[in-house]
Amino acid sequence: MHEFLLVGFAPDVPDIEKDLLPSVRELGARTAVVADAGHALAEYPAARPAGRDFLHSAAYYAGGFRVRAALFLGPDTIRLAVGPGDPGATGDGLWTVVHCEGGASHAVVADFADWLDALPGRVRLAPWVAEHLAELALTLTERHIEAPETTGPEARLLHTLDDTLIGHLPSGPVDELRVRTGAFDADAVGAIVGRLAPRQVAVVARPGAASFDAGALAGVFGAAPARIAVDEQAGADTVVTWRTGTRWSTLTGLPGLAPLGPQAGAAGCVLGVLSEGDTAVVDLPAAPAAAAAPVAPGVVVLGARAEGETLRVAVAGALDGHVTVAASPDGSAGTWRVVGAIPSGQTDHEFRWDGGPGTLLRATCARPDGTIDESDVVYVYGAEGSGGAAVAAAPAPVSAPVAAPVAAPAPVAAAEPVVAPAAAAPPAAVPAAAAPSSAADVAGSGSSGFGSGYAYEDDEPEREIPDVDEKFVSAAEEFLDAGWGVGYEDGLWEISGSFTNPVPIAARVADRLGQADDATVLVRAQGKGKWVFVAWRAPHLVLLIQDQQIWRTYTFTPPGSPGAGFASGDLASLPSVKSPRPKGPPAALTALLADGGIDYPELIGRLFG
After folding, report:
1. pTM to 2 decimals?
2. How far is it, in rounded angstroms, from Cα 546 to Cα 534?
3. Which domain of life is it from (predicted)?
């Protein structure tokens, strides 16, 4: 299983689709792109595979979702890049790239997993996107825990979900401070100086920096000797580096100085990388940071997902007044039609739907002053993806800021760990080190893992009641009446059909069979290319999705039931306890299998044999 995640403030989605995604798709990577809600998609008619070949969604955070990062995850490979510019954007920039192979990991990877895990609770996301990011966080955490002990550069990932970035910096004094940025903020520089208490300061600006004011800056240096210079080689991103003795600490990946200033709370959601080494970072090319105003309150559509004849739409916050939802096949004038309205006060609503994946969708709402607020466009999701391929490599975690515009983690060749930021040639746009060594290594197409659009031969199932106990015959007939294939062998029910999301089907079948007999029920529901397995006996249900290595354990208290709880097919709508499949069965599954007369190795053999 391969995963590819792009997070950006305003990523150039059409360019990403053209230059990057074809190569990523060859690796069979399940792909997701998450962007700031106010800048989620520009030139949307040009971004045609969005919603079909990959998940594209928005994130809402007060002050802006100003994170720029890319993650590639292979069977034994991790590449993580964090930088100041948006994925797909042109220009140069100082990026930090962590490259781990052979099952190795790095502290920055663990920090990124913690940040992903905390994200759904702090940032407004569509429920299915929150679920996806939580799965990635769990996978990265398990990889880090199980990784062999490795050496590597001293670097950590910082973020603003729990604290301001200035709060992560050490208290001074330090021997020297250097600040390089494209546009200065005197208040932010003053906050940095006040925190680090440097004995000397150097500030470097690029020519024509709009907010560069030498007089204003001179007033924030205190008694420390200061040098203010203009450097034609300085870029528009921000680098803050300081020295204690012979050791340099460097903070990179920032969209500007504002996240370090007194108004940091309004600077949005930001990531930065703090690294240490023996070399100062000077005269490195950098990339302009995207400049945009924070998202104004109004209609923000986080995402839309199609499940058969149902369309689910999520918005960032409940609004006073109905939100009208409209759809168009291509965004051209005269093609928009109203789908329905989200009732006042709701943030998540379902509509009847006869459209397909990739359809453009937007929402409007009347403001109290009579004007109409219109959301940015999103794509209806319901896409096909591909399975992954395994690659062998020796463990060698590497972490180094890379001076190049990257939309994905770059191949970094180094026999020794890099211990300080350093310039490097522009990396390839494709995670080449994780590419299959031959065409035979690439797995065939399969599920995208997001719940719809699976390859399937839609044959009419044969109507034949399996050889089961008489108490189950009525339930089996109901399943056949629904148009599903029904099978049973040695304790395992097999349900098949043309449904796109097998989760609600498996839950409904397990619920119905549990009503017929108060004993463990084991069900596998096979939909369009993907199956879901559930084990159920009140109050516990354990669930496994075919291409996801995670057991999920749910507890239902009457009058709650699996059939009702999973009616929408959304795993994120119910709390669960997750555990990696490689670690063996969770306790609830062990008890259920003992009751059902099947041991765990036999179950895994039957499911994956």
Report:
1. 0.56
2. 11
3. Bacteria
